[in-house]
Task: structure prediction
Amino acid sequence: MSDLPSSFDNGNSIDENEKSPGYYKILERCKEQPLVPLGCLATCGALILSARALRVGNKRQANRMFFARVAFQGLTVAALIGGAMYYGQDPKQKLEQKEREKMLARHREKLWIEELERRDLEVQERRKRAAAFRQQEEEK
Result:
């Protein structure tokens, strides 16, 4: 790889999520389907409480928490499926996403062509300087 930074590295990208850390994507998904993280937290809470009840020796409480854990897992899976069905049924949203992807691809292609043209100009300038240098050396 080249030590020189690419012109793509200047932050002109249309897709800001491309450079964002993973937790922004997680937050975005949580906003889209808020029941899934709540179900995960409830499942973890029930699991922790069941482990605590087992440690104390309260078998009845542990069994209730195991049952609650299974119920919360089921509700979480149902929320996942429901969210997938809800977001999967919107063809307009899919069409908009495809259009955004096409626009992003065209933008990236344009940036790549500009980058290639810029590099080509740099190579031509280097060749001109090298030819001028050689000509100066020959004159000496």
About this structure: The helical segments are 22-32, 35-56, 59-88, 91-139. Residues 91-140 form one domain. The radius of gyration is 29 Å.
